[in-house]
Amino acid sequence: MIELRGAEAAEFDTRLDEVIDVYAQAMRAPVEQLPGRKSIMRSHGSYPAFQCLFAELYGRTVGFAYGFHGAHGQWWHDVVHRALAEQQGREAADAWLGNAFELAEIHVHPDYQGKGVGRALIKALCAGRQERSVVLSTHDQPTIARHLYRKLGFVDLLSPFVFPGGHELYAIAGTTLPLR
């Protein structure tokens, strides 16, 4: 049986190799992207109200999710806030991002996808959060993850969206807390 276990930022940092392994397999990420991704994830551990969960089976990490309180001065937060304000107005941007839990990463090893692990991670991670909303970015494609987010009440805030310097299409999605 898969067990969800919380981890503080220090433990998350020591387990980054496991995290990157699950990320690489779940995202089919090119190996040259992994050092940069690892650096970004390491920095996320220092963000306010960082919270991480590992999904483990017999001591093996099969999934993980983490997030933190979004705030001005964080790259993703500032980029998305600016784009949302440009498209929907500053009030809408402030309503969604002014007091938001940013679900930065959620990944499940391909052998365990479609078995409720992702849903369990998201629901557990968001339970008891004091923020008004939860927001995330995901590939703007009809993926299993996108379907899950919609079932949990997420709506598209920006779609399609391309991050500065990027080329891939993303959707920025959000929902109010607590999750339904």
UniProtKB/TrEMBL annotation:
GO terms for molecular function: acyltransferase activity, transferring groups other than amino-acyl groups. PROSITE patterns: GNAT (PS51186). Keywords: Acyltransferase, Transferase. The keyword Acyltransferase applies. Gene3D superfamilies: 3.40.630.30. Residues 2-175 form the N-acetyltransferase domain. This is GNAT superfamily N-acetyltransferase. It comes from Nonomuraea soli. The lineage of its organism: Bacteria, Bacillati, Actinomycetota, Actinomycetes, Streptosporangiales.
